[in-house]
Amino acid sequence: MKKITIGKQILLFLTLFFLAGCGNGKVQLGGKVTFDDGTPLTVGTVVFSTETYSAKGNIDANGKYVMGSISTNDGLPTGKYKVYIEGATEEVAGKSGESSRSLIDVKYSNYNTTPLSCEVPVAGNSFDIHVPKFKN
Questions:
Q1: Is 50 inside any structural domain?
Q2: How many CB atoms lie within 10 A of CB 99?
Q3: Rounded CA gap, 70 and 68, in Å?
């Protein structure tokens, strides 16, 4: 019978550990959302979506987001996604009371109209998004 050295045992364990899926099979992905002028969008949620699947990442005060599918920051499966932004609005006081207005061009906030797409995985697991500001 052949003996396996400690070093080989550790290597075998690590190989099996990674092959067994120490992760969840999803790609960790994040990025930054900025306006065309380089300032960050600081509210809303980035959505990566197909016709049958959706993952979201909340945008923080610096414009950064990290994708999550089932739980926060758990990544998303490989594939081609449409990318759009929900909730990028601000409250404004008007003559008839308070309402909200979009901070971004509205075509970037809908699955059917967004021009943004992403093939996952991407280099460096980062996908930065640039959106135009809403024009009155």
A1: yes
A2: 10
A3: 6
Q: Which domain holds residue 110?
A: 25-131
Q: How far apart are the first and last CA of the chain?
A: 79
Token pair in block for residue 127:
């996908």
What's the whole-model pTM score? 0.76
- Cβ–Cβ < 8 Å for 53, 80: no
pLDDT tens sequence across 76-129:
899 999 999 999 998 877 667 668 889 999 999 999 999 999 999 988 899 999
Domain count, the chain: 1
Type and span of the H or E element at 122: none
Whether 100 and 134 have beta carbons less than 8 Å apart is answered as no
The structure tokens listed for 129 are 């998004």
List phi, psi (to 5°) of 40: -80, 145
User: Which residue in the block uniquely carries the two structure tokens 């996908």?
Assistant: 127
